[in-house]
Structure formats: C-alpha cells, structure tokens
Amino acid sequence: MSGKPKLLVVDDERGTLEAMARFLRRRFDVETASDGIQAAQLIARHDYDLVLTDLRMPGADGMSVLDETLKKEPRPLCLILSAYGTVESAVEAVKRGAFDFMVKPVNLERLSLLIDRALETRDLRSENRALKARLSQDDRNSGIVAQSRVMRDILSLVKQVAPSRSTVLLTGESGTGKEVMAQALHEWSGRTGRFVPVHCAALPATLLESELFGHEKGAFTGATEARKGRFELAEGGTLFLDEIGEIDLAIQVKLLRVLETRTFERLGGTETLKSDARIVAATDRELEKMVAEGTFREDLFYRLNVVNIKLPGLRDRREDIPMLIRRFLDVLAAENDRPMLKIAPDALAALERYSWPGNIRELRNCVERMVVLARSDTLELADVPENVRNGSVAAAGGDATAPELDLVGNERRLIEQALSAAHGNRTLAAQALGISRRTLHRRLNEYAASGHPID
Q1: pTM exceeds cut of 0.70
Q2: Which partner for 356 in 6, 16, 90, 314 could form a disulfide, CB atoms 3.0-4.6 Å apart?
Q3: Within 174-316, where are the H helices?
Q4: Has residue 399 been placed in a domain?
Q5: CA separation for the pair 76, 308 (Å, rounded)
Q6: For 4-19, how does the pLDDT look when each residue is reduced to its tens digit (9 = 90+)?
Q7: Whole-angstrom Cα distance, residue 419 to residue 415?
Q8: Are residues 176 and 116 located together in one domain of the fold?
Q9: Which Pfam families does UniProt cross-reference here (predicted)?
Q10: Domain extent for 84
Q11: Antiparallel, parallel or unpaired: β 342-343 and 195-199
C-alpha cells in the first residue's frame, strides 16, 4: 500500500490525459481511462478516492462516469472537466452529486489545489459520520437518562460543544449529575487523553495546589520524590474541577494563569510546563454572587464561564424518574447479588411525586435502600421510605401556592427530619438526604445567617 490517495483520471484526449497523469503522479496514486466505458469498468473493480473526468467524450460521457461513482460504495469524489461551452452541463453535474468542476484548458496547479480541497472535505465528512455514529452509540452507553425535553436540549448542547477546546462550567444543585455530564463531554470530545476528576472541596488549599500542579522532590516536608499533578495527568484529555467554588483565592490566581497561558510550574519547581488539558468545572454555588462578595475572582469566573450548562433539579425533569429508577434497579440488583426486581405502580408513583431535594444522588440512595431491604421480587409502596411517601409533592395543575409546593420550607423540614433521625450527626444526615456534608453545612449556615437556625 502506497498510502497515497488513489485517483482515476478520465479523458479521451490522449495528450491532456498523459499530461494530467504525469503531473498528479508526483503526489497521488493515479490510474487512467481513455473513455467513459473503460472508466465505468475500473470504478466497478477498484476503490478510488477521487475520479477526475472530462465531460464531453464519445460513447459514455462524463455524466455516465459520475453516475457510476454515485452508485459505488465507498463513494469516490468526482471532479468534472468542462470546455467553456459546456459549463451549464458541468453545473448540472454538480447538482447531481459531483464535488466541483473546472473549465478547460486545465491549470495544473489550480487542479492540484482543487483536488486537495475535495479530499479534505471527504475526510471531514468521513470524520463527521464516524462522530455521529459514536455519539449515537454513546447515547446508549453514557448513563445519561434524557427522556425529558429539558435534558434532550442539554444533551444536544453538550454534543455541540464537546469537540471544542472551550472551557465548560456545569452548574446546578448538588446531586444533579454534573460529574456524569462532564464524563460525557469528555467521551464525546474525541480527545485521546484521560478524564481526570478533582474534587476541590475534599482537599485543603495546600494539598489542592500540589494535586493540581504537582510538586518537585523536597518542595515541602514529606515530598520525597517528584510527582505529576492532575494537569499533567490530564494532558490531551479533560480535567474536571468539581466544586470549583470551594477553592481559595490563592489557588484561583494560579488556575487563572493556566487558563490564560496554558502554562504552569510544579510546586517547588522552576520549569514551565504546558497543558493541553480541556477544563470542565462544576459548582452548586452562585459564582456571580461570590464574585460580588469578593470570594471568587471575576476574571477567573469569566474564563470558566465560556459555556455554561445548567443541569435541572430532578423535580424539573420528572419524566426521567421512571427510567432512572429502572436503571438503578438493574445496577443495584447486580451489585447486591439479587434477582431483577420490579416496582409496583403505586410505589413508582410515590417516587415520582417526591420533590427530591438531593436530586439524582438522593434518588439512587433511596432505591438502594429499597433494594437492600426488599422482602420480595417486587418493590411495594410499603418499601418506599416514609419521608418519601409523605414528602412534598408537585401535583400537575395544582395550586402553585399550596404548602406542599413550598420548596424552601420543605427543604428545611427535610433537613430537620434527617438531623433528628441521625441524632444530630451531620455526616449521616447528609447521606440520608443524598447531599454532601459540605452542602448541608452551607445550608445550615444560611439558615443561621437569616436568623432562623436549625438547632
């Protein structure tokens, strides 16, 4: 195999045919045909990347050759050569499927450029077809449930921005699936590097800096050897910065520099390293409010907020709840070595009515509890946790001012119930609610700051 694009050149004028073939063989694998009939036979037997054919030939003309290329699979591109008086026919050939045409006498340099453009277009179309096929398969494998209109729109946006290098900021309440969406962005991006997550809230500032940028040997007590940071590990891939709103101002400055210059140094190092990692950040906090308060840098916010994708709370995508439940049932049954479980209609209805302040995370925790405690192969209404059975509802077409639709009030009551059930243990209460301990702590601080603390 030569590796060169394979061309078929067709012309009944021998001198023109030989001159074009001799010029094009400098860069391409070229075969020739002196008429349309011979060309049709060659096209039937061989695969070509491009067919270059004269329009006016005795017997089978250029239109016939074009028809043969359109029937061939894989389909070669077709360029038409046309004398001045046949331009109208050449235009008609383009309408029928030819890539383009060139008027004789042929300028060989211009012809070479036209062939390059045609082959580049062919490659792009091939990549697009492959990407669409991959995206279609990824839709089935991504783990994202998108029955609701709002989620279908979000997935469409994610697929549109995934192949770019643009920084993406995922916002929304805790538990809405921001990391799963970040993974989908990476999978659909075509990037060959790794997906590297960093949970910023889980690390103090000193450790976070080392985690992100790495460190050299002796950079600090305990640094017995050099270590790559997450930016290096995510080279050519995606770096996911979860809970970005929790990082302190000193780290924000260094992160801003990476976003602006794509360069950084390891902790304790002097060598400037380059980063090709694509940044996806996530937060459940209002960064604009933090900017106004001076706790988050405005310039960093704008660098992160190139594409903002807000994920809805589960109460705003109730159409997805049944499919999420079925997916969780399948996964959890396998994890707990149980047979496939069914769910009774009234139990499913109760789960659909609940407001899910902890969103998908809370729903999964709830389903897991039901699976573990189930006494039969069908989950009944009695298997649904009491706080869910008796929790807030969002009755379609109901009174928007009804007490059960008071989201803020219901959230407070749920937090109070969870803390009471956990005997004040905030970690256990957060787990029961399906939210992080940090989120629970922030909610409690907000209630206290408003003058209505939860004891």
Answers
A1: no
A2: 314
A3: 178-189, 205-213, 230-233, 249-261, 287-293, 298-304
A4: yes
A5: 41
A6: 899 999 999 999 999 9
A7: 6
A8: no
A9: AAA_lid_14, HTH_8, Response_reg, Sigma54_activat
A10: 6-126
A11: unpaired
